Amino acid sequence: MRSFITLLASTVVAKNAVPSLWDGTCFYPKPDIGFELESYLGRWYQIAGTNAPYTANCKCVFAEYKLNDNGTVYVNNNCQVGNKPVNIRGTATPANPEYGASGVFRVQFPVEIPPDCLGPNYIVQDYTGDFSLVLSNNFTTLFILSRKQHPDE
């Protein structure tokens, strides 16, 4: 629970206190230096975050991450609207190392317009193994993810 509180506190002050990189066009939160892709793969539940077009009116939002043979990550975002399952699949490509050694990706879904910023749009800013704080460039989106659908209160 302490990890969750730490992540939540980070969220509250993120825009004012998170170290970031400026590339002349956009800001990029610095990623967690302890991020390890192999341990990050698998299922994550969104327990809080910014509304995204593909999760509007959704409940039980979760993502599955799997490593592709070419080093990219298969992304399968899922949720439920009423009794109807909804999902969108995409690819997370590791970003240029100038944005961080790991935990920085450029995620693209087939139905989305590519982001305006040239760098990563999925930055794992804090990662404990059980919880993850994910931010986008310019701090426009934020997701708090958990390995458990209902973390301990």
TrEMBL record:
Residues 36-150 form the Lipocalin/cytosolic fatty-acid binding domain. One of its GO terms (cellular component) is cytoplasm. The keyword DNA repair does not apply. One of its GO terms (biological process) is response to reactive oxygen species. Residues 1-17 form the signal peptide. Keywords: Signal. Belongs to the calycin superfamily. Lipocalin family. This is Calycin-like protein. It comes from Corynascus novoguineensis.
